[in-house]
């Protein structure tokens, strides 16, 4: 029970820090691609347009051609518009909450991979405050990267926990919001297979037979740092697809 309580405290701390560093963005407006994806996007003005969103490219609602397909992201803009029109802070708030969720998932995945809560929390906190995430969080159109990363991490956690239905759902959402590109179609399955075989998780954490040996190997300070760096670098790099 004490361990569970400790994990909850670390989870709360990670979430609060992740939100706190980006709270000033609530006063920001729309910039760059936000214009085509949100401000000029007629499709998000009504939820009745959702079927059209799922049959069109990312900028079709603004009368423009674009070679990306992010229907889930555009659907979230439609939900934002329904809740508050084109008031920018609502869109920024969703991005901030997604970033907080991602940071918590980084913490949870690190614990799943055998790291002690304090080490996992340090890695997640570094992840939460790293400036590499500024574009994805501050820029409303960066939501596509946030959603893709959320589905990626959730799928990895479900895979580690052997929750087959959750893996299937997470993989589908990852592929859909990944724009059906090659990394979404082939990268995630290859990663899951590597983790299943122990070649990726085992290489960083020294996993040999799972269970206690997995945790014992993760106690090595060098391997803890290796796991933190892996989560810190791999996740944002993969999100961009």
Description:
The protein has about 240 residues and is mainly α. It folds into 2 domains: about 1-25 and about 90-240, no CATH class; about 30-85, no CATH class. Helices cover about 70% and strands about 0% of the residues. The chain is built from 13 helices and no strands. It has helices at about 1-20, 35-40, 50-55, 70-85, 90-110, 115-130, 135-140, 145-160, 165-175, 180-195, 200-205, 210-220, 220-240. The model is unreliable at about 200-215 and about 215-240 (pLDDT under 50).
Task: Walk me through the topology.
Layout: H1 2-20, H2 34-39, H3 50-53, H4 71-84, H5 88-112, H6 117-129, H7 134-138, H8 143-160, H9 164-177, H10 182-197, H11 199-205, H12 211-218, H13 221-239
Descriptive terms for the model:
2 domains, mainly alpha, 13 helices, 241 residues
């Amino acid at each position: 029970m004490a361990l569970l309580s400790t994990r909850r405290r670390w989870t709360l701390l990670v979430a609060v820090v992740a939100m706190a560093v980006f709270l000033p963005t609530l006063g920001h407006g729309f910039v760059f691609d936000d214009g085509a994806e949100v401000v000029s996007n007629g499709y998000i003005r009504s939820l009745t347009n959702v079927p059209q969103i799922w049959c069109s490219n990312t900028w079709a609602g603004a009368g423009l051609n674009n070679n990306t397909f992010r229907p889930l992201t555009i659907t979230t803009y439609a939900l934002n518009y329904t809740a508050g029109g084109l008031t920018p802070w609502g869109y920024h708030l969703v991005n901030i909450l997604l970033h907080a969720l991602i940071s918590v998932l980084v913490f949870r995945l690190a614990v799943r991979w055998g790291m002690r809560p304090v080490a996992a929390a340090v890695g997640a906190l570094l992840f939460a405050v790293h400036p590499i995430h500024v574009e994805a969080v501050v820029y409303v159109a960066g939501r596509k990267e946030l959603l893709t990363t959320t589905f990626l991490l959730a799928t990895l956690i479900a895979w580690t926990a052997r929750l087959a239905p959750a893996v299937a759902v997470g993989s589908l959402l990852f592929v859909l919001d990944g724009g059906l590109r090659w990394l979404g179609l082939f990268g995630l399955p290859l990663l899951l297979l590597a983790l299943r075989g122990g070649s990726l998780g085992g290489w960083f954490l020294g996993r040999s037979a799972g269970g206690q040996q997995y945790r014992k190997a993760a106690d090595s300070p060098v391997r803890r740092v290796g796991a933190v760096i892996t989560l810190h670098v791999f996740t944002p790099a993969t999100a961009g697809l």
